[in-house]
Amino acid sequence: MTRDLSRLFRPKSIAVIGGGEWCRQVILQCEKMGYDGVIWPVHPKGGALAGHQVYTRLEELPAPPDAAFVGINRNATIEAINVLSSIGAGGAVCFASGFSEAAAEDASGASLQDQLVKAAGDMPILGPNCYGFVNALDGALLWPDQHGCGRVDKGVAILTQSSNIAINLTMQQRALPIAYTVTCGNMAQTTQAEIATGLLDDERVTAIGLHIEGFSELRAWEILAQKAHVKGVPLIALKVGRSQQAQAATVSHTASLAGGDVGAQALLNRLGIPRLDDLTTFLETLKLLHVAGPLADNTLASVSCSGGEASLAADTAHGRGLVFPPLNDRQKTGLRAALGPKVALANPLDYHTYIWRDTEAMTEAFSAITDPGIALTMLIVDYPHTDATDWTCATQAALATRAATGHPVAIVSTLPELLPTNVAETLMAGSVIPLQGLTEAISAAEAASSIRAPVTDPLLLPGAPDSSETLTEAQSKAALAAHGLIIPRHVTVVNEVDLSTTDELTPPLVLKGQGIAHKSEAGAVALNLTAGELAEATALMPTNTFLIEEMVQGGVAELLIGITRDPAHGFVLTLAAGGVMTELLADSTSLLVPASRNDMARALSKLKTYKLLTGFRGKPAANIDAVLNAGEALQSYALANAASLEEVEVNPLICTPDTAIAADALIRKAP
User: Can you give the pTM of this predicted structure?
Assistant: First the structure.
């Protein structure tokens, strides 16, 4: 359901329900920010609160409020939400805790949260267990505490489930204009994705940063990503959870490779949302996006008056998805004219200090290296906190360069504290990006260059089978072969009674005991057999059912291809080094289903094993089309069995110059 959040986030009237200090602060914070709407406190005792007349009942209010801060205990909150919904309020913030987040200690918490959602009906609510929001565009705050926001005309929106992190982010001193700060709390009704989608309707929002603890309502995230792309508002994420232990594998390697955080990363990749790792880079990336928007590509130029800084810039970007292209003829000509013959021209550039304090010459040099073929030009300048008078030339040259070229330009300090707030504000007013910290700047550039259009095909959402069973290898291969997977020629034998059925198979042969999860460890695999050796080999195995196959010859590489059900993110398709290398190399990449053939090809090319597939050191290359066919066969099976599938895996897929054959396969699904 799509809810209209405009009245809640941009209210003309605010009801404050409760009489404590938290509620008093809501009123005071609105007044400090110059809110020009009406504020109606509500409490049964009446009287006055923060200089405002208190209404004793919600029904006595002059009109249904656009927004309400509900700062009373959890049981009373449910009653108040019911009344607000019935009188036509625009939405509410539920401050109280003790709902689902406390369910482990208090069994009634989850039930109360269900009651709260029912009481709200179609009226949107934030929380419970949340601080609410700051709208610094209109000075409307449903926020019961201090904060660091000031009024802005436009800016970024920041959404987080953590109220404490939200407070800390508002206290940033990085000249980042924050238009909205929203805490999401338990998200009992309105999800983080829905909130962000609602904020996209405010044209004053330039970018949205999402601090994400977990995903819910995946369709809402797809809607958000698509709407943001259409509106041209970039999204970034700080997703926590990398350190959680991967989900325990049952019988396959795929589950462990795709467990934990991998599904979340695959989802963000699919949505086109870059991921940041820390709060400072999160803020710096939002600043870059606010000023310049997404970068056109991953090309950088770096300019400094220190060889050490030039090397540091290059090393900081090393191993990331960024490049410093060689200078072209136009850049060299312009730089030589500005710098003279003593400066070695390169990118990153050390221009020495010959032109320091000469604003005109600095502008000429900075403008020369700024180029249509460069997505972002970084001017490395550290402003001393003792006396920065001599550094005005760098500020003015940066502003003049941006005005003259129209291309993205950033002033970057190597340390965050070496770019004063007043200088950062001056730079931003002239559309120069003030980036604090070289590492943060490089990370921000990488993120801003990796924003992509979201995949438009809807995610395949998994079912929730109550139980599962593991098919035998023979059953698994047969099921996958029906969807196009190539498997070896084979026969199945029961109780060793008739090995003559193998006469049509061409040795060498493989004998595998069936009904055993880890066959190699159990001694249930025998390789390179002739037909005459089968009887003796079967007698040594701890089973009475056998699969006999022709051995796959001529393999140049072995891969794992698997799909596992991830209740939080969909179905995760994993490509990895296969066979004995799966655990040894930990070489894997993941996508979400459905994935296009092109996406599979790009993912495959990211593997270290890809060098083997393309012909390593003169050896034959594998048939990449056949590998992709195998991936599509597994995906086809998953699409047809989404309601019951837990996981499907081929390991190894033996890749030859002509084909790709599943040497082993596993399916786990509901009976």
Answer: 0.92
Q: Which residues pair with 296 in a beta bridge?
A: none
Reference 359, options 384, 381, 330, 377; nearest CA is 381
Predicted pLDDT of residue 380: 98
Per residue in 217-250, pLDDT (tens digit) is: 999 999 999 999 999 999 999 998 876 533 333 3
Locate 90 and state its tokens.
């625009």
**Per-residue pLDDT, 252:** 46
Positions of CATH 3.40.50.261 in the chain: 6-241+258-275, 290-449
As its CATH architecture, domain 6-241+258-275 has 3-Layer(aba) Sandwich (3.40)
Q: What is the CATH number of domain 489-550?
A: 3.30.1490.20
Would you state the torsion angle of the CA atoms of residues 176, 178, 179, 184, taken in this order, to the nearest 10 degrees?
Answer: 150
Residue 497 CA: distances (Å) to CA of 372, 462, 510, 514, 545: 75, 42, 18, 16, 10
What sign results for the dihedral spanned by CA atoms 539, 540, 541, 542?
Answer: positive
User: What CATH number should be reported for the domain whose range is 290-449?
Assistant: 3.40.50.261
Q: What angle do CA 328, 334, 337 make, to 5 degrees?
A: 135
- The C-alpha atoms of residue 523 and residue 513 are separated, in whole angstroms, by 9
Among all chains, which residue has been given the structure tokens 């009287």? Answer: 47
Quick one: tokens of 315? 């090393």
Fill in the DSSP letter of residue 317: H
Q: Among candidates 377, 379, 375, 416, which has minimal Cα distance to 394?
A: 379
Give the dihedral of Cα atoms 302, 306, 307, 310; nearest 10 deg.
-20
Topology of domain 557-669 in CATH is: D-amino Acid Aminotransferase; Chain A, domain 1 (3.30.470)
Tell me the pLDDT tens digit for each residue of 649-661. Answer: 999 999 999 999 9
Would you state the pLDDT for residue 246? 32
Instruction: Provide CB contacts within 8 A for 471, sequence distance 6+.
Output: 479, 666, 667, 668, 669
Collect all residues with Cβ–Cβ distance below 8 Å to 178 and sequence separation of at least 6: 134, 136, 149, 152, 155, 156, 157, 158, 169, 170, 172
Report, as an integer, the average pLDDT of 171-179.
97
Query: Among all chains, which residue has been given the structure tokens 């698997």?
Result: 562
Tokens 């700024």 map to which residue? 370
Q: Could you tell me if 603 and 623 are in contact, meaning their C-beta atoms sit under 8 angstroms apart?
A: no
